[in-house]
Structures are given as C-alpha cells and as structure tokens.
Amino acid sequence: MAGAEWESLEQCLEKNLPPAELREVKRLLYGKETRKLELPSRASEAALEGDFELQGYAFEAAEEQLRRPRIVRVGLVQNRIPLPADAPVAKQVSAIHERIEVIAEVAAMCGVNIICFQEAWTMPFAFCTREKLPWTEFAESAEAGPTTRFCQKLAKKYDMVVVSPILERDEEHGDVLWNTAVVISSSGAVLGKTRKNHIPRVGDFNESTYYMEGNLGHPVFQTKFGRIAVNICYGRHHPLNWLMFSVNGAEIIFNPSATIGALSESLWPIEARNAAIANHCFTCAINRVGEEFFPNEFTSGDGKKAHHNFGYFYGSSYVAAPDSSRTPGLSRNRDGLLVAELNLNLCRQMSDIWNFKMTGRYEMYARELTEAVKPDYNPNIVKE
Amino acid sequence: MAGAEWESLEQCLEKNLPPAELREVKRLLYGKETRKLELPSRASEAALEGDFELQGYAFEAAEEQLRRPRIVRVGLVQNRIPLPADAPVAKQVSAIHERIEVIAEVAAMCGVNIICFQEAWTMPFAFCTREKLPWTEFAESAEAGPTTRFCQKLAKKYDMVVVSPILERDEEHGDVLWNTAVVISSSGAVLGKTRKNHIPRVGDFNESTYYMEGNLGHPVFQTKFGRIAVNICYGRHHPLNWLMFSVNGAEIIFNPSATIGALSESLWPIEARNAAIANHCFTCAINRVGEEFFPNEFTSGDGKKAHHNFGYFYGSSYVAAPDSSRTPGLSRNRDGLLVAELNLNLCRQMSDIWNFKMTGRYEMYARELTEAVKPDYNPNIVKE
C-alpha cells in the first residue's frame, strides 16, 4: 500500500484505537499534544474549493517574565504538479504559479508569516531521467527570475516571508545549475539564497549529474518573524548540516524535499524530528505528492525494466518542535497546506533544559573530524 | 499512563489494528519487517521461570558473491534492581550479579555472541540524590573490580563478548569516578574501556556532580564477532558522538541508558534509530525498567515537593538497523532479554546505497566547527 490508496498514519490510528490507547500511542509517537488551530472558515472554504487539505496546529511554550511570546505562523505547502511533465515548459510554470497563488492566499487568510514550498517547486522532479532538455529550461536566476518575481509579489502583498526552492541558473558563474532556495523578505526584497549542501547518489535521484554540492555554507536569514534556514532535501540525512544551521542561530529550519515511498518513507518521521530535538529548534519537513510520468522511459539501476514514472511522492509534510513534539502529517495523497503556530521562545527554553549546545563538546569534534578526514587517518580501533 | 500499567506501543497496535492496516502502520513506523527468531524452547522456559521477557528478531541482508553473511547475535538486557536501594551495598551487588547470571545463561542458550547490560547496571541510578555515600561505594576498577571479574567469567564460559557499563573508580588518577563501559572479549580478557562522553545536566540527572565528560575519545573494539562501540546514555542526544564511533569503524553501537518517561519517552524511538540510519550501522538502545526509591527525600529543580523516587524507567529496549528498520521494543514494565540476529553485511550495503559517508563533506564541517567554537565567532546571519 505504498501508493496513494492509504491516506495517513494518523487517520488510521484515530479510526482504530480506543481513546485512552490513542492518547498513549500519541504520547509515545508524537510527544506533548499540539493544540488544533482554529482557522478562519473562509480559509477552510477556499481550501475545499481549491481541493487541497488545510490543517493547523499550535505549539506552546512556558510564559517568561522578560520576553513576550514570540509567535510565528509557518505555512508548509505540498502539491502535485498540475500539468503533465510533457506539457510545454512555460505552461507548466504558469500552471504551478497559479496553483501556488491559490494556496498562498489561503495561507494569508490563516495568518501565515513564513511560507515554504516544496523542493524545485516550479517543475516536475525530472532528475531521474538524466536528460538535460527540456528540464534544465526550468532553471531560473535566483535574484531576478520570473519565479522570484512572482514570490516577491506574494511576499509584499501578504507581508509574508517566502522560501522558494528552485532550480537555479547561475549566469554570473558560467551558467551553471544549482539546487537553491531563495529567501524573500516580507518587504518583497530578496534577502538571500542558500544551496543544497548534500547531493544524493541514490536510486533514481540522479541530481549529481545536474548540479554540485552547495558552496554557500550554512547561512541563516534574520526575518522579522525569526531566524530561519533551509536544509534542502537530502541534507536532512546529514546531522552536521542541521547542526551548522543551528550553530548559526536558526530557530526554524525548513526542509523542502522530494522523496518517494519505496526509498525513504520509514526514515521520514525520524530525521527532521531528530534534528529538532538535537538542535533545540523547529524543523519543517515538506514533501511533494503523487506520481510524475516522464515522456521517455528510463531505468533505475536496480535491474528492473525501464519505466516512465519516478515512484510515489508520499506527502506527509509535518512540523517538529524542540521539545520532541510534532504535528500530525498532511495526507499522503492530497495537495495540502499545513499551518503551524510556533512560539519561538520554546527553542531557548528547551536549550536551557537539555543543554545540548553546552554539553556538545564541539572543540573535541572539530579536532577529531579534522584528523579523521586526513588520507592517512588511523581510526581508533582497539584489538585484543 | 506514563507508568507501568501500559505494556508497549507494539502490543497496543497489534491488539487494535486490522491486519492490512497494521502492516502499513508497521511499514511506516518500523520499516522493512524483521523476521521473528525461533529461539530454543528451553530458553523460553527458563525466561518464564526467571520471570523475564524473551524476544528475538533477525535482520537480513542481500547475498554477496565475495563475502559470506556475517551473522552475529546481540543480547540486550533490561532489568529492575532486584533489591531496594537501601539494602547494603554488597548485598545489592550480589543480587544484581545473580539476576544477570540467569539472564546471561538464557542469552547463551539463544546463541548470543555479544551481550550488553544497562547503564551503571550494578547499582540503583542514585545520581538524582546528589549524595555521595553509599552510592559511590558501587564504583569499581574497570580492569580488576569484582564486576569485571564476574563478566570475564561469563565471557569465557559462554564464548561471549560482554559490554559492562559500570561506575568506575579510577585509582590510577587520583581515585576519580567515571561512567564507563568495560568491553570484555569472548576470550575473557578485558579488551578495553570507553567512557560516557556527554554528561547530562537535566532534571534529576545530576551526574555532573559525580563524574566528568569521558577522556577516551571514540574507541571502537574489534571483537571476533564484529566492530563495536558504546555510546553511553546521554551521548545518544549528540549526533556527533554516534558519528565519530562510526567514522572509527563501528558496525554496532550499544547505547546503555537509564532514562525516565516524563523526560524522554517520545525521544526514545527517534534518536538511536536516526543514528543507525545516518551512520549505516546497527544501534542497540537499552533502558532500565521500573521505579527506584531512595532513603532520603530529594527535590527535582522543578518547584515540586521533595520525594523519594526518581521516576519511571520505561524499558522499551530495541535494535535499529542501517536500512531504517527496527525491532519492536521490549516491554515498558518487565525485565527482558532482546536477542537480535544481525547480518553485518547490511552496513556496507546500505552505505553503498545511501553514501552518507561519501556525501558527508566532513572537511567542510571540520573547518566550520573549528571556526564556530572560537569565542569571537561571527555566525553567518543574513540581514535585510
């Protein structure tokens, strides 16, 4: 049942478990319960009309004397590609812009302050094909491409920070490609960009033939709603990637992704959540939804027959908190908007309780890693 | 229901979910299903007689042409302290030795090659009290103490590697204390020791008033059954600790722990499992069981009244594999022995599939961490 026919883990548990047992299962699986957010009815109606799921949850923090609650609402968007992958490039981009515009409007109704779209959101995830045209035509300038201009308009209109993960064409450096997230301030200005630091070489994720590992390090963006960072897709498997964003001060780390059931579905609830716990921050894991079919057949390096589809993107986007709690996931089979209200004070509160940054012994690890990467490194192995 | 009255997540799901839904929930929560091990009936009978749970599971790997399967059986032991914490020290130690001897014998019947006991297994977890006597009297020499001699006997008798986490008295260095795991070869020789690298300062975990952060780095022990390491308790919250054991070649990392429901139960299924995924190795998370009452009342730094008990140790020991699968947990309320059959070939197979060590960019992180720990570090924050 790894395809669309199964809606979500949460829905299954809610349906089948008696209330007392459900409470205990949720405590073990999701930590402290998140409060359901009351969202405006016109938002729910618009979501119904637009045929996408709308869910809202709130994380709370203890009251403090000297800091007021720092409340921010994030919006996570997961979606199918609205047109088939063999439609003309320009039409596909327009259709996806239109689709996202509808969802962003509902996000605005729900008071979302920071919205993040899925990885490479303007295009099908075509890197499985290893073909260059037409897919590389979806690449755009991070600073001045049509998608960035589209997001700037949204940002300004709704006073909303927009995180826009795209395929970037870097004209200033020999026209190379990058997997990039553009961060647009609520003022409408491009605040900056960050690049995917770790590139997969697994299954049909042939991205290493399109772009290289990011060269921008671990920037954190100070927005008026809080300090955010973007760990793109495969970077979530690398605990050090999350760590460095956190060391640089990120309070919310978005993880826009594109990943399929057969490969990663049992990893999905683990990794972003572990990162939220280990780094005393919020993490927002976003995955696309549905199946994408490509015009030319391709093989998957697994000895199986050539085929046209990449696999099933299982959605299930969620937000995890530093106190180990998390929201339920969006569904596995529908477009959706997840609204989460965060109190950013929770980050420092959890840090003061658990002290992982203080007990982390980073000097030791800097030293040990520096040694370990040397070609003549002699691992510490004790033998009889 | 954070106490003893609730047996386990798995038992609740098995009881309530229809078979098809159960299969899907397990796929999402536990990855690829682990095979139930057939254990000798005399082992089951002995476990019944000894009043402890016995479970067995096997993880499989693909066949290779040049390497034979590298099969190893590990045994994870979780238990209550058999005598109350106010019984005389020597009696408590004898009683726990006797209890463990019974469980180890059953482990031997089940063909266990490497057995690991819970953190500070010879004593109640008395560090909540902040009292020194009588608790520090449980400390022993790692090389020549009575508990090490006891484990050497077991190791030799059963041709079994024994991982024995104790409170260590280091007579060679000013009689200081350490939280240490002694690794005893199947030959009966002390192969070496490893020390808890990260010491908690959270809730009633007042261990920082007893011993300091370990000074032995990240040793890996080459046993005849495979390369093992020991990440003691609070070290599981630190992804870098797992990483360095793995960089040094560990195929199995044991995580002997002592942790309570109110603090960590929703973190428990996440952290060791994330480590197994991120580091392409097996991890074995072990927690003690039950409640421990101390003679003198103590407070918990939470504004609540003084009390005598530390909280509920929730057991739930489990093994996680590099392919993101895991065993069910032992129960939350009974002593238990979890036998897991591992095919260590799975580690390199998963590494070849996912490539996290290759795509990990450790040079970059060594450089970034080296900068980040400097007192005048300027975090990479982008402002408008």
Provide structural commentary.
Chains A, B: One of its GO terms (biological process) is beta-alanine biosynthetic process via 3-ureidopropionate. Chains A, B: It is an enzyme of class 3 (hydrolase). Chains A, B: This is Beta-ureidopropionase. Chains A, B: InterPro entries: Aliph_Amidase/BUP (IPR050345), C-N_Hydrolase (IPR003010), C-N_Hydrolase_sf (IPR036526). 2 copies of one chain form a homodimer. Chain A is α/β, with parallel strands linked by helices and 384 residues long. In chain A, 28% of the residues lie in helices and 23% in strands. The first copy, chain A, is built from 10 helices and 18 strands. The first copy, chain A, has helices at 9-16, 19-30, 41-49, 89-109, 146-158, 239-247, 261-264, 268-279, 345-354, 362-372, and strands at residues 35-36, 53-58, 71-78, 114-116, 161-170, 176-184, 190-195, 220-223, 226-230, 252-256, 282-286, 289-290, 293-298, 307-309, 313-314, 318-320, 336-343, 381-382. Chain A has an 8-stranded mixed beta sheet with strand order 1-2-17-3-4-5-6-7. A 5-stranded mixed beta sheet of chain A has the order 8-9-10-11-16, covered by helices on one side. In chain A, a hairpin with a 2-residue loop joins strand 8 (220-223) and strand 9. In chain A, helix 3 (41-49) runs antiparallel to helix 4 and helix 4 (89-109) packs parallel to helix 5 (146-158). Chain A is globular, with a radius of gyration of 21 Å. Chain A starts with 8 loop residues before the first helix and ends with a strand. The interface between A and B is large, with 87 and 87 residues.
